[in-house]
Fold this protein.
Amino acid sequence: MTMQIRKTYMGINPEMLHDEIRDLVQKQGIIASEAKLQTYPLPSGATQSRVTLVFKAQAKQKECGSAHIIGSPGGETKMLLDLDENLLPQETISTLQANLAFILGSYELKW
């Protein structure tokens, strides 16, 4: 079963968010691999960034999740984390959520 964590941040660069997520998952024993950064031009001349990451469980070397990050020229950055609850212990997922909230909470837009 896959758990989704969705967040919208303001004033944080997509590449910085990528780096922070990578470091946080690695602290939990998850391998962040296959990072891909793409930049798209917009008609206004601004650019939009897209970052994707694939996570692998260190013990089993199986894909256990992914992260998708999209940054807009207006300063809004959206993140979607998919985490496989069958491959990751609930404690790992909870700790990851708590760390995200602590480190990135001041950037998060509340709906």
In short: The two ends are 26 Å apart (CA to CA). The chain has a mean pLDDT of 92. The chain is about 25% helix and 45% strand.
